[in-house]
Amino acid sequence: MQRQGIGGSAVIRIRAAGSVLLVAHLLFVAWLTLRPLDVPWVMPTNLHPLAGIQADIRLGWPEAARRIGEDLALLAPLGVLLPLAHGRRVVAPLASLVRTVTAGALLSLAIALLQTGVPGRVVDIDSVLMNTAGVALTHAALVPAARAWLGRRGARHSFPPAGQEEPAQGLTPTIPRVGIAP
Q: What pLDDT does 158 receive?
């Protein structure tokens, strides 16, 4: 039997906490991005990559930083919450990054498509790009360090390293063959 470095009940608690936080964050994002806005006019749809970011930069430093920061931060927690809800400590770092960023990009694209039917909301391709970049940056900055910390924590609790079998506990007991009575 293989262990992931920490006890089975701890893995279940981590997955449960990650799943609850993930659902809470997704509900918050849905409320924030899909509620109708009561505005007298709306900006036109932006389907030209980086055009909105260039326009934000032309507005000046504080306003550009606020707008770009909002787009980066909206889905950034998914960079940690998706691997946390998945609950595996030992995984290929690149595969984890690709899976997480792909899920973040698809979710951002789904939000953009759903916004087309919400009054006062418009599609902005730069939001999709920045949301995806936020997920990637958060994952790259935090997840490898968290997995390494969990690995060290598991090593302190004397579990075998991930990917290795537990030490043998002796020979398997054998039961002498019992003959069938006449």
A: 46
